[in-house]
Design a protein that fits this description.
Oligomer: single chain
GO biological process, one term: DNA recombination
Catalytic activity: ATP + (deoxyribonucleotide)n-3'-hydroxyl + 5'-phospho-(deoxyribonucleotide)m = (deoxyribonucleotide)n+m + AMP + diphosphate
Organism: Bradyrhizobium brasilense
CATH topology of the largest domain: D-amino Acid Aminotransferase, Chain A, domain 1
Radius of gyration: 20 Å
Enzyme class: ligase
Helix content: 10-25%
GO molecular function, one term: ATP binding
Structural class: alpha+beta
Distance between the termini: 29 Å
């Protein structure tokens, strides 16, 4: 089993060729090259005729940690501080590597990104619990453990598992609250089948800029009725459930409500 430290940011798939412009795509296939111009520029230095690299885009702090909320403010297409942390290689010079064992893909990946601004995600072959405890101790999000000789498969599978130090979840924004005209957080929902079920309210994690940006995005989505399948006894400004929020929390109630939640940012890559 191989373990790697878990960075905090949207997954990105980087396609590059010596004869074509570099492109950056989200896991859903959205072209975010304009948002990640720094990453696209860095890719010109990859030592390959063509390649598809899998990784996460992060905004690194001085202490080596990353912060998803800080990254949100960097997604303007002008940032010079974002970095691609590369952890897998799908194609190299026209060759499909997805059936090649993970440790071999990582070896090839390290060769082509070495000496560039793209960071190689190191793997450590040791007991997972020890790695996890160390990651949490130094303030990282967690670890990802993968089967050493596994093939590449899109989506969830049995060959890898992610463990975070705090619980994180992507939840739907159902509405927002104002207290005497001032920002007072957002109402959350969790999808269960075709229904949206109340998942709590988060009022921590916002600064003036993020609160203003959220309110600007949510105003065009305002609706008269709650979007929940079962009405809740809270007053709010309800919206069409279009936007997704990344939320960190300590625990969850039996009813599915998050406890001590903290807003980490919007998930526009999903």
């Amino acid at each position: 089993m191989q373990c790697r430290l878990l960075a905090t940011g949207p997954d990105a798939r980087h396609a590059c060729s010596n004869r074509r412009p570099r492109k950056v795509f989200t896991r859903r296939g959205h072209d975010w090259t304009n948002r990640f111009k720094k990453v696209a520029d860095d890719a010109w230095h990859i030592k390959a005729g063509s390649a598809i690299v899998d990784g996460e885009v992060v905004s690194p702090a001085a202490d080596g940690t990353t912060d998803f909320s800080v990254l949100q403010n960097e997604l303007k297409g002008r940032s010079t501080s974002i970095v691609l942390v590369a952890f897998d290689l799908l194609y190299l010079n026209g060759r499909d590597l997805r059936k090649v064992p993970l440790y071999q893909r990582k070896t090839e990946l390290k060769k082509i990104v070495d000496g560039t601004e793209i960071q190689f995600s190191e793997s450590f072959e040791l007991e997972g619990r020890e790695m996890f405890e160390h990651a949490c101790k130094i303030g990282l999000e967690g670890v990802v453990s993968k089967v050493r000789d596994s093939v590449y498969a899109s989506g969830r599978g049995n060959n890898w598992v992610k463990k975070t130090c705090a619980q994180r979840e992507t939840l739907t924004i159902a509405g927002f609250a104002l207290d005497e005209g001032k920002w007072d957080g957002i109402y959350l929902g969790r999808r269960k089948g075709g229904d949206l079920v109340y998942a709590g309210k988060v009022d921590l994690g916002f600064d003036k800029a993020s609160a203003a940006d959220l309110q600007r995005r949510l105003k065009p989505l305002i609706r008269k009725t709650q979007p929940y399948a079962k009405r809740i006894a809270h007053k709010g400004i309800w919206v069409e459930p279009k936007l997704l929020a990344e939320v960190e929390y300590r625990a969850m109630s039996a009813e599915g409500k998050v406890r001590h939640p903290f807003f980490k940012g919007l998930r526009e890559d999903l």
